[in-house]
Every structure is written in structure tokens, then in C-alpha cells.
């Protein structure tokens, strides 16, 4: 019985290694398939652009330093999405209960910020925002396993975040800054209470 714990650890290690190898093989096959489709003219332009760069508040809230963009394929039904510099996000596209599996700054971070922006602005339906999140993860090269798990996570748990954002917007909260803090001790609550730090709202006819 004394060797049982070591045996269990070996089994777990072997399973994790096997899953990592299988995930890499899946990703390689997906990249080969995508390249073939592109050469054949069957995969139209769809891409993400812009380097992720953040300024962090003392608390885990992040300011996007430069714009990022997702462009749908030609003839696609989804709109192009540009997230402006100054957008403040908590990277909540990845529900906190999944942080042990998916850290917020993984390969899906670019797609997650786009998703957070859509959940805040609510210029699409929640379902379309989730679908764009999935498509942006494909463009970022996220493995099919991670895509499936993350998409199911936001589809299952995203309604609460969508409703909370809607309520915060009704109460007057804003999320796009024109002035950034320079003191690393500054919290989001402190900064957003200052006058004149936000880009003025543009009336859209929506909340």
C-alpha cells in the first residue's frame, strides 16, 4: 500500500502528458486544414489584429493600451469588432471558477477582451457575442479542446455578467478611459470616480 500514492501520481502525470500530446496533434491538424482551405480559396479573410498591452490598476482591472480588432470572413454574418484603447476590463470572459485551468492571459486572451467589450457595449445579442468569441479563438489558434470548454463556460455562466453590465451602464458607469493612471497604487474605484477621465458617451439609442 505504501507505493499506491506514487502509482497514482504516475498515472495522473501520464494522463496529463497524453492529453498535452493529443492537444498538440489536434492543433497541428487544424493548422494544416486551415492552410489547405486558405490555399483552395475556401477560407475567406477573417482575422484578429493588434498586440495586447495593458495598464493594470492596483486591483485586477486592466486598461487596454492600444486598439485590437477582429474582422469576420468575407460575406460572414458577424460584424467587425474594434476594441478601443482605454477600454477597462476585468478579463471576466473566463469565469473565475475556471482560473485554475485557464489563466486569464492565455492564448485566448485576445478573444476574451473582444468578448468582454461586446458584453459591455451590448451592440450584439449575447449569443452573437459568444459566437464571435469562439470565432476569434479559432483565429488566435486556440486548440479545439480549450475552445469548446471556454465557449461552453461563457454560454452557461455569461448571462449573469451580461445582466450586471446592463445594470451598471444604466447607473451611469463608463468603461473607456481617455486618461490613464500613473500611480500603481490607484484602484479602479478611485480612478473612475474622478471627473474627466472617460471618453464621452456617444448616444446610440441603446442603454
Secondary structure: elements and pairs:
Blueprint: H1 4-39, E1 47-49, E2 54-56, E3 62-64, E4 68-71, E5 81-83, E6 88-89, H2 109-121, H3 126-139, H4 144-170, H5 188-192
Antiparallel strand pairs: 1-4, 2-3, 3-6, 4-5
Helix pairs in contact: 2-3, 3-4
Question: Would you write up a description of this structure?
Answer:
This protein is mostly helical and 207 residues long. The protein folds into two domains: 1-43; 47-192, no CATH class. Helices cover 46% and strands 9% of the residues. The chain has helices at residues 4-39, 109-121, 126-139, 144-170, 188-192; strands spanning 47-49, 54-56, 62-64, 68-71, 81-83, 88-89. It has a three-stranded antiparallel sheet, covered by helices on one side. The protein has a three-stranded antiparallel sheet with strand order 2-3-6, covered by helices on one side.
> pLDDT under 50 segments (min length 5)?
11-31, 33-45
Radius of gyration: 20 Å
- Largest sheet, spatial ordering of strands: 1-4-5
| Beta-strand content | 5-15%
The profile of the biggest β sheet is: 3 strands, antiparallel
The overall strand count is: 6
| Multimer state | single chain
Can you tell me the overall shape? globular
Structural class, by secondary structure, is mainly alpha
Mean pLDDT: 79
Number of helices: 5
Alpha-carbon distance between the termini? 63 Å
* Helical content class: 40-55%
Number of domains: 2
Amino acid at each position: 500500500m505504501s507505493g499506491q500514492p506514487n502509482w497514482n501520481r504516475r498515472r495522473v502525470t501520464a494522463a496529463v502528458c497524453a492529453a498535452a500530446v493529443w492537444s498538440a496533434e489536434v492543433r497541428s491538424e487544424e493548422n494544416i486544414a486551415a492552410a489547405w482551405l486558405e490555399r483552395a480559396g475556401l477560407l475567406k479573410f477573417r482575422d484578429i489584429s493588434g498586440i495586447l498591452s495593458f495598464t493594470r490598476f492596483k486591483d485586477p482591472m486592466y486598461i487596454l493600451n492600444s486598439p485590437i480588432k477582429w474582422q469576420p470572413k468575407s460575406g460572414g454574418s458577424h460584424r467587425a469588432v474594434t476594441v478601443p484603447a482605454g477600454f477597462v476590463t476585468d478579463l471576466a470572459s473566463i469565469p473565475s471558477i475556471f482560473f485554475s485551468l485557464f489563466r486569464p492571459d492565455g492564448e485566448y486572451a485576445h478573444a476574451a477582451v473582444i468578448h468582454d467589450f461586446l458584453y459591455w457595449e451590448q451592440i450584439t445579442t449575447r449569443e452573437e457575442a459568444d459566437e464571435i468569441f469562439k470565432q476569434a479563438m479559432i483565429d488566435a489558434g486556440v486548440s479545439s479542446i480549450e475552445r469548446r470548454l471556454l465557449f461552453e463556460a461563457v454560454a452557461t455562466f455569461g448571462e449573469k455578467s451580461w445582466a450586471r453590465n446592463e445594470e451598471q451602464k444604466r447607473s451611469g458607469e463608463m468603461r473607456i478611459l481617455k486618461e490613464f493612471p500613473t500611480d500603481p497604487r490607484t484602484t479602479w474605484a478611485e480612478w473612475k470616480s474622478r471627473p474627466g477621465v472617460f471618453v464621452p458617451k456617444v448616444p446610440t439609442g441603446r442603454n
